Amino acid sequence: MIVGTLRHPMDAVAAPESGIHTVTIMDDYFKIPAGSVAVPNGWKFAGTVLRVPGCHGSPFLSIEFSVASPDGLNAVEALPGATWQYSTSPQMQNIMAHNGCPGVNIQTAADFLASIVVPNLHPGATIINVSPGGPLIEQTVRSMQSGAQAANQKPSITGAAVRIQYTRGGRILDEELSSVVSCSELHAMAMFASPASTTTTCSTYGISLARAPAGRLDEFLDGPLFGQVMSSAKTDNVWFHRMVNEQNARFQSATTEFNRIAAGNLAQLKAEGAARVERAQAFDEQLASSTQSSMNNAQAAQNARTAAAHRVVNLASDRADFINPATGKVLNLDYNADHSWGSSDGRSVVLNSDATYDPNGSVNAVQSSWVELIPKN
């Protein structure tokens, strides 16, 4: 119930003049009948097949019509549907925006009607109620769910009805808009520098509308006229099959274009990923080279300090370093002797100042041979 609403004395559910006639709706593109609808005599009628261009146009063609009372206070309308997408991927969001089709993060019929349809159709209207919709919406949802199950698909299918109130020509009107929205998700795995993402595609076949003077909408919806108009709307079979063939061709074309764009985006992501890997490898190689150079310099400095300290110790203790040619070992010995000899087994030395002395044959002649040690500079 609408509390505090003032009605015009003539605001009542309009009764049609006697009789109903059937009107044919033509498809101006195919130049053939697309369908028909029953219209009360004396009521206004307009009908067409609307092909909405652009990324948000409905992929499902259907007949659109408006049946309104002579004063326009009562009406039954079938409005075109729409389609939209949203992605959690920043790259896909940028692509959508660049193509003039920014993402729309709406995934239920209630949000679609309340956030998109109502503000665009009736700016400033007051939303009175949001509900799951009546029996017709419930039946449509069940039918779509059964069809999706038979096709092994798992879309999210929701129905809703939004009741609004607004002023038109000085009259307060109640209006109910209803629709069914189907959404499917495509999950993309993480690759290269791109995290995992989800792209959601949603669509609706159309929007149903019923209008009546304030406080009389339920009476209009429950009355015979609304049911007669809605149940009489029929699609021509010849037109339907031709439309389906066209839709399939458009879908294949769109799929090919999508795959082309996706392949280009994937190639770009691969190139960017390879460039990042190459830059990272170059950085690692430069860092490793710089680190090794620093380590080498530090080791050389340490070796120089160690050698200098060793020379100081040798000088203070009257000692020097000698190399045994037989073993290659370095020996630290008293440097006051003029000659130094080392055994071939590297275990013994003989020091003397006699230039003619040779320990071979005189010192451990059986066990060892002797070589003269070479001073190490």
Question: Average pLDDT value?
Answer: 82
> Strand sequence of the main sheet, in spatial order?
3-4-5-9-8-7-6
Range of strand content: 25-35%
Number of beta strands:
16
Number of domains: 3
* N/C terminus separation: 112 Å
Largest sheet: 7 strands, antiparallel
User: Total number of helical segments?
Assistant: 6
Name the overall outline. rod-shaped
Order of helices and strands: EEEEEHHEHEEEHHEHEEEEEE
Share of residues in helices: 25-40%
Classification by helices and strands: alpha+beta
* Unreliable residue stretches: 1-12
Write a structural description.
The protein is α+β, with helices and mostly antiparallel strands and 377 residues long. It has three domains: 20-235, no CATH class; 244-316; 319-375, no CATH class. The chain is 35% helix and 32% strand. It has helices at 90-98, 109-121, 135-150, 217-222, 224-232, 237-316; strands at residues 20-27, 32-40, 44-49, 63-68, 75-87, 126-131, 156-168, 171-188, 197-213, 234-235, 319-323, 330-334, 339-343, 349-352, 370-372, 374-375. The termini are far apart. The model is unreliable at 1-12 (pLDDT under 50).
Explain the layout of strands and helices.
Elements: E1 20-27, E2 32-40, E3 44-49, E4 63-68, E5 75-87, H1 90-98, H2 109-121, E6 126-131, H3 135-150, E7 156-168, E8 171-188, E9 197-213, H4 217-222, H5 224-232, E10 234-235, H6 237-316, E11 319-323, E12 330-334, E13 339-343, E14 349-352, E15 370-372, E16 374-375
Antiparallel strand pairs: 1-2, 2-10, 3-4, 4-5, 5-9, 6-7, 7-8, 8-9, 11-12, 11-16, 13-14, 13-15
